[in-house]
Amino acid sequence: MGAHPADQSRRRWWRRHRPTPPDAGSGQELTAPDPAELYPSLEVIEGELDRSELSYQQRAQSLDGKAGLVLGAAGVIVALAAAHESVLRTVGQGFAVLAGIAAGWAFLPRTGGTINPAELQEHYLDQSELRTRLTLLATRVDLYSADEESLKRKFRRLLVSVGLLLLAAVAVFAGSILDVS
User: Which comes out higher in pLDDT, residue 61 or 8?
Assistant: First the structure.
């Protein structure tokens, strides 16, 4: 079985960007390269990625909070519509139940991808700081891309639940108006 595409991508990137050792006969010592000299913007990129990951967590929590509100509102509509039976209120209850299911679906997944510290220790404890940092950076970028796609799916699910909740509210409201007249 082949390696994961993200692992292949990191290996190709590392082969192109790894520091080259001095020639054997040159008399130069093999010293660890200074990451700041080889990649002057490495710290800037790592800092920006830290901010992006924090932003992802905040946006995911925000969407989860909104999904919770939709779920609660769907429950309220189901309870209110049950007080008086009518066809439109029953339809509204059905839409509210579907909105609640869609809101529950919007909670998935609850967390983004993470780096396994045990694997990090196992594979990179004896590696240079630069190689470890570059590998971590490439991994974090891959995880961030996957997290962003997950967040887009979560947002679409939330929109579906809000749309269904709106239909439920309209149906229950219309059922209330038609019952009065």
Answer: 61
